[in-house]
Amino acid sequence: MIPYGRQDISEDDIAAVRAVLQSDFLTQGPAIERFERAVAEHCGARHAIAVANATAALHIACLALDLGPGDLAWTSPNTFVASANCARYCGADVDFVDIDPVSWNLSPGLLAQRLDEAQARGRLPKVLVPVHFSGQSCDMEEIGRLAREYGVAVLEDASHAIGASFLNSPVGSCTHSECAVFSFHPVKIVTTGEGGVIVTNRDDLAARLLRLRSHGITRDASVMTEKNPGPWYYEQRELGYNYRMTDIQAALGASQMTRLETFVTRRRQLAARYDTLLAGLPIQLPVQDIRSQSSWHLYVVRLHLDQISRSHRQIFDALRAAGIGANLHYIPVHLQPYYRTLGFSPGHCPEAERYYGEAISLPLYPALNEADQDYIATTLHGLLT
Ligand SMILES: *Cc1c(COP(=O)(O)O)cnc(C)c1O
Q1: Starting at the edge strand that comes first in sequence, how are the strands of the sheet with 359-362 ordered?
Q2: Are β-strands 359-362 and 299-303 bridged in parallel, bridged antiparallel, or unpaired?
Q3: Could you check whether the bond before residue 233 is cis, i.e. omega within 30 degrees of 0?
Q4: What is the largest CA-CA distance in the chain?
Q5: Cα–Cα–Cα angle for 196, 161, 199, nearest 5°?
Q6: How many whole angstroms separate alpha carbon 80 and alpha carbon 333?
Q7: Residue 64's closest CA among 81, 89, 45?
Q8: Can you list the alpha helix ranges (DSSP code H) found in 140-236?
Q9: Judging by beta carbons within 10 Å of its beta carbon (0-12, 13-18, 19+), is residue 385 exposed, middle or buried?
């Protein structure tokens, strides 16, 4: 089976991991800071905080933004469940703003309308979690403008989008947000096995995130309530977690970051090649905003079912039967049984629901070769014509 995504591990990556295994620190050592610096420098952000995974990153980012019971967070329905769950972990309510039919990202037009209505009803969200779906940045200029106008904090779920940019600034520069989160799961652009990073330009958020990642504990004497009783002393200032990343993972991440440009360039090449190979078929190819440079985590096509004799399911099954690891991103989050128990039902986000009935993610990863890609395209031509 040609997988839909796959990590790319070099001899240098392996050497970097081996070096940590032979060093003094498997965790809480110098590799963490090296990795954090690499991510912060790439983004042009002041701070990067590495944690166990992007789900943990989203969780403590919500906490650092003071999201709690009685508050509300909004996100896109076309995302992985973690983008919404992070608010639920904090006891906050969640709602979904439907997607744009062209970009498949949260619609800024709908967001404007929903914010206006929410203000009139007196229940604005405290946090907005836009998701840069497939690696294409949301319209952060417009989202940032609306967020400032209505006093909403923006937490970017940039899990797909390290290496992407919008209006020539890297995703993660946090120009229009409080902070952004990256995932380093093996199917993402850069991997640490499991891993997440929060980037921010705000010193106060960074300090809070560092504390929340490690039990809510500080070792900074200047902020302690007790005046330093001895060298063993630390203080727990709030309820935090053990969300730390290991140095083993960070060393892999730092080594992988040196190849970020190579990875993204190869993904862009393959995406452009798909565009050519699939042109003319009864499908919607991914449309790119002229202001955005995608990192191409996913290559998603949408079937024009009225022009195709087979169903979405039949095409999906035929691809899998042909050894092509087609996938579907995403099941609209509000239709998950858990979110239905919270009162959501079909019809809440009609655009994301329609999209779900037509979308297919095709394999895309740096080591995908041209012959396999040609085979995928030929198979699709056979199924769609
Ligand atoms: C992968 C992903 C996550 C979760 O990332 P983990 O590192 O696996 O916790 C969150 N949001 C989106 C959009 C993702 O794709």
Answers
A1: 283-284, 299-303, 359-362
A2: antiparallel
A3: no
A4: 77
A5: 45
A6: 7
A7: 89
A8: 140-150, 203-213
A9: exposed
Residue 183 parent element (H or E): strand 179-183
> Average pLDDT, stretch 373-378?
98
DSSP letter for each residue of 12-39? HHHHHHHHHHTSS-SBSSHHHHHHHHHH
CA distance 362 to 385: 18
Burial class of residue 24, CB neighbours in 10 A (0-12, 13-18, 19+):
exposed
Asked whether 134 lines ligand 1 (CB < 6 A), one says no
177 close to 156: Cβ distance less than 8 angstroms: yes
pTM: 0.98
Helix axes 370-384, 312-321, angle to 10 degrees: 140
Strand partners for 49: 198
Per-residue tokens: 344: 């959501």
What tokens appear for 104 in the block? 């498949």
pLDDT in tens, 135-194: 999 999 999 999 999 999 999 999 999 999 999 999 999 999 999 999 999 999 999 999
Write the CA distances from 208 to 175, 214, 261, 385, integer angstroms.
20, 10, 31, 56
Closest CA to 243 of 132, 89, 109: 89
Instruction: Confirm or reject: Cβ of 156 under 6 Å from ligand 1.
Output: no
Residue 122 scores a pLDDT above 90: yes
Query: % helix / strand / coil in the chain, to the nearest 5?
Result: 40, 15, 45
Q: How long is the chain?
A: 385
Site to substitute for ligand 1 among 83, 86, 94, most atoms within 8 A of C-beta: 83
**Dist CA 197 CA 213 (whole Å):** 11
54 within ligand 1 shell (Cβ under 6 A): yes
- Residue 8 alpha carbon to ligand 1 centre in Å: 18
Number of Cβ atoms within 10 Å of the Cβ of 216? 16
